[in-house]
Structure formats: C-alpha cells, structure tokens
Amino acid sequence: MQLKGLERLELPPAADMHVHLRQGELLELMVPTVRRGGVDTVFVMPNLVPPLTAVDQVLEYQSKLRALAPDVNFLMSLFLHPSVTPEVIAQAAAAGITGVKMYPQGVTTNSESGVSNLEAFYATFSAMEQHGLVLNLHGEVLESLAPADTTLEEAFLPTLKTLHERFPQLRIVLEHCTTAAAVEAVKACGPTVGATITAHHLYLTSHEACCDPFAFCKPIPKKPTDRDALVKTIVSGDPKFFFGSDSAPHPLASKTSAAQGKAPAGVYTQPYVTQLIILALEEAIERGVITEADVTQEKLEGFLSRFGRQFYKLPEGSGKIILERKGEKIPASVRSEDGEVEVGISRAGAEVFSLKWEA
Ligand SMILES: [Zn+2]
What we know:
By secondary structure, the protein is of the alpha/beta class. It has a single domain, classed as TIM Barrel (Alpha-Beta Barrel), CATH 3.20.20.140. It is built from 12 helices and 14 strands. It has helices spanning 24-30, 33-36, 55-68, 86-94, 122-131, 152-166, 180-188, 206-209, 224-234, 252-256, 273-287, 297-311; strands at 8-11, 14-19, 39-44, 73-75, 77-79, 99-102, 134-137, 172-174, 193-197, 241-243, 320-329, 333-335, 342-344, 351-358. The protein has a 6-stranded parallel beta sheet with strand order 5-6-7-8-9-10. The chain has a 3-stranded antiparallel beta sheet with strand order 1-11-14, with helices on one face. β7 (134-137), α6 (152-166) and β8 form a beta-alpha-beta unit. The protein is globular, with a radius of gyration of 19 Å. The two termini are 24 Å apart. The site of zinc ion has 5 residues, from loops.
C-alpha cells in the first residue's frame, strides 16, 4: 500500500475500545459522532457524575446510548469502587457488562472516587478473573507519588506487572499507553495483557499539550521518541496493541475560558478517529519514522478493527467503511442544533479522507 497518493481505501468498521460519551446534552451530541468516525463498536468509560458503580446504573446508561445509536455495539464498564464486590462482579457478568475501569484517585476527569489502594480489590479481581471480565487500567500514579525523574505512566508500570503476576488469567488492558516503556512492559506480559493506543498520542507531544487547551489531556503526550514508538507499535502488527481513541469531549467554553494550564483534560477526536490514525501514519512516513511499506492493509485492519475484537472475544464487524480523498477538512467543532453545546475537534483544519459506510 502506498498511502501517499492513495485515493481510496476500504476497511472493516473500526472498533474503538476506549471512549467517553459523557451524559446529558453532551451525550446526545456525542453518540451520533461514533459512526461518523467509522466505528461500529465502542468500549464505554464509566467516569460519569456520579460514577457508574452499580450494575443497574450501567444498564440504564447503556439503554440511553442504544436509543441514540441502535447500530453501535456499546460494551459497558463499571467504575472500580469499594461497592464493586465479588457479588457485584457476578451480577455484572450475568448482565453482559464487559469490564471494570480502575482510576487512581484524582488523576483525571471525574476520578475523585477512584482507587488509592489496589490490594483492597484483590477479591474483586479474582472474581473478575473467574467471570471473564476485563480490568481496564488508567495506568498513571498521582503526581505526588511519582519519582521526579520519571513519567506518571512509567511509575505505574510495576503495578501492571504485579497485577498480571498475581492474576495471570485476568485480561488486563493498559489504557492509552503513551511511552516506549509502557509498550515494552505490555510486550513483556503474557497474552492476557493488552493495551490501547489513541489517535492523538500518535501526533501530539508535550510541546503542544502544555500550551494548547485542545491538545491538553491525561495522560499527557510525551516526547517525540515516545510518539514515534507508538507509531511503530501500531505498524508492527502485534495483536496486543489495539485502537482506543480515549476521545474525551469537554464543552468548548470550558477549554477556551480556562487560564493557561487549567483547561479540563481531554482531546476530542471521535468524528474523525479513523482518518486521524491514517493522517498520523502519513506524517510519520514523512518524518522517516516508518516507511510506506510498513503500512499494509492487514496491519491497518488489525489495529483498527480485529485485534480489539479478538481481545474482547467479539465477532468481526460486518459491513465496510470507504475512505476517499476529496479535500475534506476537519471542522473546528461539533455543535448541537440549538447551539447550546459545542465541542472543539482535534486538528481542526487538517485535510483528511472523507468516510462513508457501505452496507
Ligand atoms: Zn479515558
């Protein structure tokens, strides 16, 4: 495949294994943008207000999502909390809930009720292992707990290893990995450990994330060498690494009115997620990080669609998405019809493939 000059591309629908669809008016605006980005299956994060810590809350949320987009498969998660006991895990498994998300307390949006001591949840993890639920890790430590010479993500990696050793049959996803070290740590674990990689960590570095509110997110993008390690990982064809956009919308005004460095963390990519991955690969080819020959149809399909479904034991997607170069540019935002809610899109103005669905 020669991406440069390629006019048309057909792919299976993408599976986005890490999304934030929020609630209220924001949710109504967000859900229809899932399929616009070429995605038919999403793993939905539970960090709402209040967090989704009970099975019936999760099911109620899922039915709202389904009502807005009946043609999307919404995989659901519980928020790890002391009330998520082994009994709740058994109920969750029976109700078809897919995973449990662990947020260290206070690391990102709506994580105030997160975890401060993982060992307190070992009985829960054991029940998850038994019932086949996936543990999704926001793999960062609190800033106050990280040694000065390392990133918050790298400081978390020994915890990943400990959990995997203690619960070798538990499927664990290190969410949104951002460093070369995280990639190596995931590779060093057995086949029950995988990781998601976002679109935006393939093109942002700390240089943009520090100062542009629309590039500010957690985990913070790292060095150019880390970005390039992620790009190389997704064209390596290793099935442990699959797509999870971590698309994280915030109202436009909360981003633009915040003082420097105080904007809420999150990059919104959902309506263009597939195209943003391809754009990042094209840019990496131009930088000389990878070559045209590294990007094959098979590797694109693996990363965007197959590997995530395999890890989550789902069937392959049906239908097809078609990408064509028509000079389309990413607009600045998506906005509700009444204009009440508006969310800025990452890389506004960039020229990308146009995407359509074929049955
Ligand atoms: Zn997230």
